[in-house]
Amino acid sequence: MDGIVTDVAVGVKRGSDELLSGSVLSSPNSNMSSMVVTANGNDNKKFKGDDKMDGAPSRVLHIRKLPGEVTETEVIALGLPFGKVTNILMLKGKNQAFLELATEEAAITMVNYYSAVTPHLRNQPIYIQYSNHKELKTDNTLNQYEEYHRAQAVLQAVTAVQASNAPISGTTVSESAVTPAQSPVLRIIIDNMYYPVTLDVLHQIFSKFGAVLKIITFTKNNQFQALLQFGDPVNAQQAKQALDGQNIYNACCTLRIDFSKLVNLNVKYNNDKSRDYTRPDLPSGDGQPTLDPAIAAAFAKETSLLAVPGALSPLAIPNAAAAAAAAAAGRVGMPGVSAGGNTVLLVSNLNEEMVTPQSLFTLFGVYGDVQRVKILYNKKDSALIQMADGNQSQLAMSHLNGQKMYGKIIRVTLSKHQTVQLPREGLDDQGLTKDFGNSPLHRFKKPGSKNFQNIFPPSATLHLSNIPPSVAEEDLRTLFANTGGTVKAFKFFQDHKMALLQMSTVEEAIQALIDLHNYNLGESHHLRVSFSKSTI
C-alpha cells in the first residue's frame, strides 16, 4: 500500500532503544528506580530491562519514530479511543514518547488494533510497542522542565474533557469541552438531505482519508449530524479539506464539516446510530441485532483506503450492505451522477403461509418506493422486491435484514436480477406477482419530502399521523391491540393529528405497521404508520 513503510509496524518486541528522559519508569525487574536522568532528550542511557524480548503486555506503551513537530495532544489522541490515558512523557529529541493507560486491557486493545491498522501521525507511520515497565513515574525534581509541565497540562485538559462529557442517544459526547490544538474528531452536518445518509455511507466516504475509529449519528436542530473520529488528527484535517461543501449525491446531501471540540468519543453501543470499530464486542443497546462479529472484525482490520474521492477499494467492503453503501459513497464530488445501484432485493426465510405481495410492499415501502413484488412460485419462502433506486434498496436491506416478520427472521440481500419480470399476459401466477408502480401509497415520490428525514430502523414505537378529530386514544389502543400485540404506551401530539404508540416488541410493531398503515379511520382519513426513533 502506498505510503506505508514495511519495517514500521506494531508488535510486542521490546526494543533496546526504549530510552528514559526526564522520568523514572518503575519495573518489577529493574533496580534502577532511583535513577534520575536529564530531560533534554539527549541522554543515551537505557534501561537494561528493555533489552529483553519478553512479550508480556504492559499498560505503558513505547511510541517511536514520531514526527519532530508532533504535539502531546496528538500522541494522547492515539490512546483515547481505547481507554483513559493516565500519563505521558515526550522525548522530543529522540522522536519518541511513553504513554500510560489506566489499564493493561486498554493497552492490549490498542496494540492489537494498531497491529492491523498502521498508525500514522502527520502522514508518517509510527511504531508502538509494549514497554518493559509497568508504570510511568515522573520524579518530582523534574517538574521545573517546561516540556513536563506542558505535557501534564495537556493530559489534565483532556481528562477534563472526558469528565465533562454529556450523553446523546446513549453515547457519551459533549460539544462544550475545551478545543485541542487539532482534534481527530470531525463534526458533520448534512444539508439538503433528500436521500437518507446512513452510518455505513459515512464510514465508506471518510475511510478514504484514514482509519475511522468511531462514528455517532444524531439529530440536532432538526438536522442530521454526525461525530466521526479518526485515528490521526491529520487524517481529520485532510478529510475536512477535501469533503467540506461536497455533495454526497447529485445536488443534495451537502457535507458541512468542522473540527469537534472533543478529542475522543465514548461509544456505548454498536448499532445503526453509533459504531466503535475498535470494539466489535459492544452490545446494540436498543433491541436491534448486535453487529455481526465477522463484519465488525472485517471493519476493525480495515486499512486506510488510499483512493481519491469517487474510487473505492472493493477489498475494504465486508458485506453486500456495505458494498451498496460504498457504491453510493463513491459518488462524492462527482457532479451529474444520480443515485443508482442494484434496485432488486432477494428476501428469504419468509413465512410462506402468511406473506403476501401487499405485506412486503407495506413493510419495504417504509424505506423506499416499491415498484414490483414477486413471491417465487417454486420457493414461496422467498421473494424479489424491486425498489425505485439503489439507495432505497440499500436502505431497506440495511434496516430489514435480520428482522422478524410473521414469526420468522427474514434475510435481505441484493439480487442478481436487474428487474422483476411481470407474468406473461393471460398467465395466472396465483397472485404471487404484483406491480405497484402506480400505487398512491408511495412515501418518497415527491422530491424533498419530509419523509426522507424520518426514516428510522424498525422499533417498538410507532409514529401515527393523519388521525381525524373524532378518533380517541382508546380507539387507537384497541385497533393496535387487535393486531395480536400489546400496547405498552400511547401519547398524542399537541394537535391530536399525530401520536406515538409503543408495542411490546419490535416484531409486534412490524406486524401492526403491516396491518394498519393506510387503515381507513373514517372522515376520508387513512392512517399513516411509520417507525419512530422516540420512546414514550
From TrEMBL:
One of its GO terms (cellular component) is nucleus. The keyword Manganese does not apply. The keyword Repeat applies. One of its GO terms (biological process) is mRNA processing. Gene3D superfamilies: 3.30.70.330. Residues 59-133, 186-262, 343-417, 460-534 form the RRM domain. One of its GO terms (molecular function) is RNA binding. InterPro entries: HnRNP-L/PTB, HNRNPL_RRM, Nucleotide-bd_a/b_plait_sf, PTBP1-like_RRM2, PTBP2_RRM1, PTBP2_RRM3, PTBP2_RRM4, RBD_domain_sf. Keywords: Acetylation, mRNA processing, mRNA splicing, Nucleus, Phosphoprotein, Repeat, RNA-binding. It comes from the Eukaryota. It is found in: Nucleus. This is Polypyrimidine tract-binding protein 2. The gene is PTBP2.
